[in-house]
Write a structure and sequence with these properties.
This protein is of the alpha/beta class and 388 residues long. Helices cover 27% and strands 23% of the residues. The strands form four sheets. Strands 3, 6, 7, 8, 11, 12, 13, 16, 17, 18 and 19 form an eleven-stranded mixed sheet that branches. A four-stranded antiparallel sheet has the order 1-2-9-10. Strand 14 and strand 15 form a beta hairpin. The longest helix has 19 residues. The protein starts with 5 loop residues before the first strand and ends with a strand.
Length: 388
């Protein structure tokens, strides 16, 4: 028998959590969206929380490094992203030596997970070149290769992107589940529970590698729009990439990614273990995310963002994707125009004026309300550096 003590809680201290929608855009209206159901959280009781837990050491700070040479003819330059990441780590931490900068987050005794985003491979996923540089940084802090895991939920998506063949020798590459109904890799004692649309399974369980395997997580999302969440960045890559059974939170045309994404990121020990976020913006998907293979909607942005505050980083990501969509003359991700909806996936992937859901970009601000970071743009400090 498992004798560990668990506590059932809500993120705001009541029996169940009801999250209001805090609109921030004049184009955004909740009138069409049904209210979110109660969401219960079951997590380990008595676990000490880390001082590095989100929003981490540098709340409200985002370091942005751009270099047009980082991606040329759709190929990412290993040497250029090395320079970008080294500069970013120095500027984020204020340390001159990159090894000292990495040591602010990672210690030699850690077991480190690098949470990639393989969804959308091969067209757009966490660049292996960036992941290799992160591995080099972790190893410079004294962690042996055998204690570094590159992981995601779906093993088949990891396979499509060929991470096993592209990572340094000794680093372990793994997927939490082999197929959609595989639950062996999940912890039955840590879960979020809610009934969104009358689904038969109302729980989403935390991956064991997170609940009891890793001691630190470095989150490596990509910069993409998302048909249900509005954008997918640090928060969604971490929350929906850690718990199973998450696609039940949206059924056309409605989505409860707001508030579920933020709630999942608030669950311990995930919140304490995710100590650093490095967003791969070498490619920006501005429509068709997260799975598009249409290169018309993939822009070579040539940037990397770094920070410890996932809310602040996703706020800046949303700003950049909104600016690109505006430049391309297509609707905002905040749009609530029913005429923009389609049930035809092929039409969505070809027409940037169409969408499958009423998107929920406000999941970012909702996560901020849960204490995961800062979403008020006036309170976010962006340090931008252009190398070339």
């Amino acid at each position: 028998m498992d004798r560990r003590a668990f506590v059932k809680r809500s993120c705001l201290g009541g029996v169940a959590l009801f999250v209001d929608h805090w609109g921030t855009s004049p184009a955004y209206s909740q009138d069409l969206i049904p209210p979110a159901p109660p969401i219960h959280v079951n997590e380990l009781e008595g676990r000490s929380v880390s001082p590095l837990r989100m929003p981490g050491l540098y709340p409200g700070r985002v370091v942005e490094i751009s270099d047009q040479r980082s991606i040329v003819a759709n190929r990412v330059s290993q040497s250029i992203v090395r320079q970008m990441i080294e500069l970013g780590m120095r500027e984020l931490t204020g340390e001159k030596d990159p090894r000292v900068a990495w040591s602010k987050f990672i210690q030699p005794q850690d077991t480190v997970g690098i949470k990639i985003n393989p969804s959308g491979a091969p067209a757009c996923c966490s660049s292996p070149e960036i992941v290799r540089e992160i591995i080099a940084g972790v190893r410079s802090a004294g962690v042996p290769a055998r204690n570094i895991f590159v992981y995601d939920r779906y093993a088949y998506e990891v396979d499509i992107a060929s991470y096993q063949a592209l990572m340094p020798i000794g680093v372990r590459v793994t997927g939490v589940q082999e197929h959609k109904l595989d639950v062996a890799g999940y912890d039955p004692n840590v879960f979020c529970e809610a009934n969104f649309f009358g689904e038969w399974e109302t729980r989403s369980y935390m991956a064991r590698i997170v609940s009891s395997g890793l001691s630190k997580i470095i989150n490596v999302p990509t910069m993409k729009d998302h048909s249900a969440a509005g954008v997918t960045g640090c928060l969604k890559n971490l929350g929906y990439g850690t718990f199973n059974n998450v696609d039940r939170s949206h059924r056309r045309p409605f989505s409860f990614t707001d508030p579920l994404i933020g709630i999942m990121c608030s669950v311990e020990p995930l919140r304490s273990k995710a100590v650093l976020h490095i967003m791969d913006g070498t490619r920006m998907v501005w429509h068709g995310g997260p799975l598009t293979q249409n290169r018309e909607f993939i822009f070579p942005a040539g940037l990397i963002m770094m920070g410890t505050d996932p809310v602040a980083m996703d706020t800046i990501e949303l700003e950049k994707i909104e600016a690109k969509r505006s430049k391309e003359g297509v609707p905002s991700v905040w749009s609530r125009d029913p005429s923009s909806l389609t049930n035809d996936g092929d039409e969505f992937f070809q027409d940037a004026s169409k969408n499958l859901f009423y998107r929920q970009p406000h999941h970012i601000a909702a996560a901020g309300k849960l204490g995961l970071g800062i979403s008020d743009r006036k309170q976010i400090e962006v340090q931008a550096f252009r190398i070339a």
